[in-house]
């Protein structure tokens, strides 16, 4: 869900000539098409992240910034995610894995801390490795965000495999 963020345009301006952005809102996509009509390298599509209409292995990079957080917004206990939210997350991540080319990179930017988010990403079925980094101004009291990088075709660390398996065990 690109929303009305300028990120796609910013990437284009930084030299990435071929950027595809999706959102489930037709009004949002229409507004973004109009706003950036002068940038032919930007493509906009109305699409559901749970059922991407792209062919298999069609992207070198998939970037999401807060979109996956929407799947967890109604969860009241981040330590015990509902089966519905876990299934929705798995469905979306399976779609991301499907559209990534071998060697492709999935980048996720979120406020979700590693102990909450890594188990979702660390599924062997997705066929990717997993790394993460905390980002912020260095102040321990500051609100940090997290960058997760998954590389298609590289193995998961055994510790991450164990995290992913814990997600599917009953509480």
3D architecture notes:
By secondary structure, this protein is α/β, with parallel strands linked by helices. It has two domains: 1-47, no CATH class; 59-167, 3-Layer(aba) Sandwich (Rossmann fold), CATH 3.40.50. It contains six helices and six strands; from the N terminus they run αβαββααβαββα. The protein has helices at 7-13, 26-35, 67-71, 83-99, 114-121, 158-167; strands at residues 19-23, 42-46, 59-65, 100-110, 131-135, 145-151. The strands form two sheets. A four-stranded mixed β-sheet has the order 3-4-6-5. Strands 1-2 form a two-stranded parallel sheet. β1, α2 and β2 (42-46) form a beta-alpha-beta unit. α5 (114-121) crosses α6. The longest helix is centred in the middle third of the chain and has 17 residues, at 83-99. The two termini are 31 Å apart. The model has no long low-confidence stretch (mean pLDDT 91).
């Amino acid at each position: 869900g690109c929303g009305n963020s300028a990120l796609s345009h910013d990437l284009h301006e930084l030299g990435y000539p071929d950027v595809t952005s999706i959102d489930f809102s037709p009004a949002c996509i229409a507004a973004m098409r109009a706003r950036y009509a002068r940038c032919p390298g930007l493509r906009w599509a109305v699409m559901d992240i749970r059922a991407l209409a792209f062919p298999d292995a069609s992207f070198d990079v998939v970037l999401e910034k807060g979109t996956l957080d929407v799947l967890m917004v109604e969860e009241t206990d981040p330590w015990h995610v509902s089966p519905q939210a876990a299934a929705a997350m798995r469905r979306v991540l399976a779609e991301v894995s499907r559209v990534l080319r071998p060697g492709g990179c999935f980048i996720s930017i979120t406020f979700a801390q590693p102990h909450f988010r890594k188990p979702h990403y660390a599924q062997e079925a997705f066929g990717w490795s997993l790394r993460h980094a905390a980002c912020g101004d260095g102040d321990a009291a500051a609100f940090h965000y997290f960058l997760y990088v998954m590389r298609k075709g590289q193995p998961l660390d055994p510790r991450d495999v164990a995290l992913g398996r814990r997600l599917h065990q009953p509480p």
